Amino acid sequence: MPVDGGKFFGDVGLFGPDAGKGGKFLILPPGYKGEVPQGHFVYRSGTNNVFIFLRGFYEDPKNLTPADAHLEKTRIYPLNGETGAKAMKFPDASGIPVNMLPMSDGSAFEQLKRLVDSEGNNLAGPDWLGMLAAIGIVKGQPFTPDAHSREILERAAKTGYKMSRVIGFEEKVSGNSYRMYSDRRWVNPFPDGTPANPTGTLNLAWENVAGTYPYLDLDARIWMFTNYYSISPGMVSKSPGAAAMYVIAFTDSEGTPLVGGSSYRLNLPANIPARLFWSVTLYEAENASGLANGQPFPSLGSKDKPAQNADGSTEIFLGPQAPEGKRGNWRATVPGRGYFAIIRLYGPTEAAIDKSWKPGDVEKLK
Description:
By secondary structure, the chain is an alpha+beta fold.
């Protein structure tokens, strides 16, 4: 449940304290000192604003009704408001275009102003709030930059966004390699450690803990939230069969960025180590949104039942045209548009965690 790109509570559901059995979760605001009722999983928020990201797993992509019905049992209501809590509404947005991208122009500063007004010093430390104050963003005070200042803020936001995309495409950040495997191009910001017990370089507070003192690794945090929508311990768990594992490919086997006009093959060896399911999803290089490729979803996975080779491996084909006889194992790309690919393993088993199973690189077809 991140708020500012780095503050999380934990997980709900399969990977949370309820272990998928359901229950009541109580989210308390900053500084809450009142009575905490029994029978709840309690999270204390450091901010007034939170968001809850719920994901339902389905058995058949042609029948989403059971998963939808399960999610629609969710109710959110004020503390002590359970008796009068009404059923929530869940609009169906399937197939409806929606822009969920972060603001990348001067309006980003207007959004920051709203957050500062809502959160005050809950939002960030004095240094960060001081930098915002230097450009006129202070809680409870009007933010009225003149035309010249707005022009500067517009350029700053666009430049900052582009810088984040450049950082987000690096295989090495702050001198640390994000390579998941020494002989593959796949990367992950937590290739060696876990959030609760970091044995690698980073923890989920984005502190570099490899040296004699921890420090906030800003580039690592930018990298993560440029490529991922959110973060929680479950996303980087190393417990077999639980949570999820993600690896990203920005380039092909030769280190060349993936481009929509070329065709590629990705080989996933037999016995893909995912207890729940696996998928390969394509994202726009420019903004990390799902690739608008003309197909219902820019994703292909175990629920789609792609064909397997005789040895049990699965080949995924990426390119502007499907290879002959391979349409069921193909996802379209768009000429003139760069992209990257993420493999998701939900409920990764021991072979994923100890890296005895590893995907092939994305290979460009001649």
